[in-house]
Amino acid sequence: MARPARRRAKLDARAIASRRAGCKFAYAIDAPHPLNRIDATFARLKAAGRTALIPYVTVGDPSLAAMPSMLTALTQAGADVIELGVPFSDPMADGPVIQRASERALAQHVGLRNVLDVVSEFRRRDTSTPIVLMGYANPIEAMGGEAFAQRAAAAGVDGVLVVDYPPEEAGDFARLLYAREIAPIFLLAPTTPEARIAAVAALARGYVYYVSLKGVTGAGNLDTTDVARKLAEIRRHVALPVGVGFGIRDAAGAQAIAMHADAVVIGSRLIQEIEQGTPDEAAARAGRWLAGIRGALDAMERKRAA
């Protein structure tokens, strides 16, 4: 049974002190809840001094048939966690690139049940790479929160990020996930006040996802100084790993973010790579592009460790 949010907010004191000092990789790994694949992955990366690489793809883009080879290509290219987008007709946080991916998937009638089937198939081949579903409340509520949590656990989902579930309204849903050792993951933004950061800290598991830009996915240019400043504020409250996404488009951007974040999340630029080729080329193109990002991160980390 999950601990109450009030007790969960009393985070590991040593981890918080290190976070306040600006120390990366200082997140707590002796969490008071059962470790799932996300926790185990970040613990392994912390021990190795490495930054997690988290690609995002929309399930059903370019097709359901392409998803097994796509997920294999991403893991072989160095993905540490994979975020799978659940197609939705009104993706309010997504820019035009991910909107197009959702439209291509919806045109093939891909829905939440198909997404869970994709995860189930992946789990028969890969039992270690964490899978996080990212989407919106409507498909989950249409299925029913408890039914969704049960099916997600049976499929092998490790985390769920629901864009339009604010922490103030997500307590019941989070408890459904806690009971099945699935991590509720939340977004934080440049405009998020400290009170809401604390509310997220009380509910979140796995990692938190910092949106580096004001706006939708894939928009604008990164300001790493602003990102570093906001991460320091977040880490005064959050002992979980912090991933950064929305706007990372190349190896240099990934390296700059990795100097401050525990994970680099890339979606729009990866989907652009997919849509620039034929469906048959999608997995290979995605894997080749992501491998370049992983190589750049590894090179930076080797240099830093020397």
At a glance:
The protein contains 14 helices and 9 strands.
Features:
globular; disordered N terminus; 14 helices; 9-stranded parallel β-sheet; TIM Barrel; alpha/beta; 306 residues; 48% helix; single chain
Topology:
Blueprint: H1 5-8, H2 13-20, H3 37-48, E1 52-58, H4 67-76, E2 82-85, H5 96-107, H6 112-125, E3 131-135, H7 137-143, H8 145-155, E4 159-162, H9 171-178, E5 183-185, E6 187-188, H10 194-203, E7 208-211, H11 224-235, E8 242-245, H12 251-258, E9 263-266, H13 268-275, H14 282-305
Parallel strand pairs: 1-2, 1-9, 2-3, 3-4, 4-5, 6-7, 7-8, 8-9
Which radius of gyration do the C-alpha atoms yield? 18 Å
CATH level-four homologous superfamily name: Aldolase class I
- Average residue pLDDT: 88
Q: Name the shape in a single word.
A: globular
Work out the count of structural domains.
1
Beta strand %: 5-15%
Helix content: 40-55%
Strand order of the largest sheet: 5-4-3-2-1-9-8-7-6
What does this protein look like?
With 306 residues, this protein is an alpha/beta fold. It has a single domain (41-300), classed as Aldolase class I (TIM Barrel). It has helices spanning 5-8, 13-20, 37-48, 67-76, 96-107, 112-125, 137-143, 145-155, 171-178, 194-203, 224-235, 251-258, 268-275, 282-305; strands spanning 52-58, 82-85, 131-135, 159-162, 183-185, 187-188, 208-211, 242-245, 263-266. It has a nine-stranded parallel β-sheet with strand order 5-4-3-2-1-9-8-7-6. Helix 11 (224-235) links the parallel strand 7 (208-211) and strand 8.
